[in-house]
Model the fold of this input.
Amino acid sequence: MKLTGRVLWLTDDPDTVRNQLAGEGAAPAADAPLHYGVNTDAMISGAACTLGYTGEILGPYFLENFKEAVQKDSVRQGGFQVMVGGDAYGSGSSREVAVVAHQGAGIELVVAKSFQRIFQENMVYSGLPFTTDFSVLERLQKGEDVDLAALADELPPFFRAVAGNGGLMRYGTRLLAGEVTPSYDLERRARPMNCVEKIIAQRTFRAPGEATGIGSVAPGDQVLCEAGFRGMHEYTAGMVMHLYASEWGDTPVTRPAEVAAFEDHFVLLSHETVPLKVKGQRLAPAMALTEEMVEACDKNGIRLHGPGRPLPPGVCHRVVVEEYGLPGTIIVLTDSHTPTAGVLNSFAFGVGSTAMAFALRTGLIPVTVPKTVRVEVTGDAQGILSPKDLILHLIGDPYFREEHWRESPTDTCVVEFAGPGLDQWNVDELSVLTNMTVEGGLMTGIVAPCKPVRDFLVAHRPGTNIDSLLVEPDPGAHYVKTIQVDLADVPLTVATPGDSRNRAPLAEHGAVDVHNVVIASCTGGSLADLRAAAEVLKGPRGEAGGAGHRDPVLGPGGQGRRGRGPARAVPQPGLRGDPARLRLLHRERARDPQRRRDHRLHHQPELRSSDGRPRPGLPGLARGRGGLRGDRQAHRPARALTCRHALLNSR
Done:
């Protein structure tokens, strides 16, 4: 590759980005701060994702509205060839269309200080060259012809094998035909392993028709593992099945009984609170994507969840916890919040569309063995501190925020949660810990066997020998770090806009006016969440604030088991409760709702009127999925915006 186009530096300064797009001035200085955690939702918005999944469709929308500096199609029309970012490039959702959007916009190389796992894997599988070596950029700028294919030589063995065989899909075909063999040693000696390492070793593929399992694995190893439950939703299923059919035609899906599809992202798009402009732009293509998924399920015998579908509706990763997940198995979904199921002592993580298509055909999933941090929880939450306080406190620590665990570009990391402090929370509450590991740039989290998890599995998986599946760490297992957490030392914590790692103690924030209340999925739509919200919201209705009073928007994450619909736990709500009572009910975290609304208007301009102000009756979150990070508003966990913390401080 010779540099015939331009280089776009995604700096922290919006004006610098804007000037580059306008062709004004020289390139930013080498020491200019680069944007931390360029998010996949910023690379390609949820609105654009409804339009399709090809580069031709998505290229014009690449980075649209990023820092309010990028206009539609300005990257492609600007002739940019190389993208440069900072640390944690590709944070956020598992959407592989973020990579496709790069390619559709003409980007041939991505250079960044570090990459997030799912995005990096998606680049490998989609054939988008990348590097953390900034000297490559310098060589291009000096006029050198750089062999981008050679960048794959610096990758671990499996990634090299995929690149050398023409991509993951063709590699899968050759693997099934016996034309390629695993790129890892099958005769590994046993050694003490932690929970995740034991699951990976037990499930490692050896050869077609042979039982899985090798003696041990270690961080950095790349292996193929038997995938257990696999799932996709309407944002991704069309692309998954298109990739599948392109390589394997009508070949049946492997173990379809362990696969499900979920209509959970678009179900509220037709709701009356959604602005007509949004419906006009998104409803028809969203329904077309949904129909692609339904047809694929009918054709391939895949079970389907959704309103009016054969199986009950619910958010995919919550339904997996309620109905499907088993300890000791590997669970993959095309959703970044798949780690939710790690609460069940499973190894659960999100994957892109190509990896899911590969898993549907081969029954296998590529795994880079992660480093593991053990977090041992002790102390008493006193009925006040919540798992969300704990996980926000953890991922905002410099060790996680600055990725001190990382030694190489392809390193990944998980958290193993353990300790007697976990026993005071139920599985709904504990699932927040694993769900939000991805907010800290981690691969996933796993909960070591504990009483709440065992009790939940016994009650919800009748007829299953749970004790035979639960995985305990071995004595002497290796961890890159062990963190002892006494809950007495964890403050009530809130996530501030931009990134969940930008957390702060609640005590640092004063009174907050409440404008909208959203109680929704991810970490806010379980039965436990809605019961907690009911305790707050059943109080007397308060005086309307300056922005007017609005009833809460409810988005249950699942149906509950055996007809225990969680919405029944919520009474006719009021916006406020008794402050004296609320001081005793601090289980939920909260955020500044005004700043949240500002972020929402920033990233969803269709919600602004022509003069830039919010449209009257701005809905909470019409899709039932809330925002925790400012640049992921369509795909983030949502508690009640006011919840208990903010209600305490409301006037």
Remarks:
- The radius of gyration is 24 Å.
- Residues 276-300 form the longest helix (25 residues).
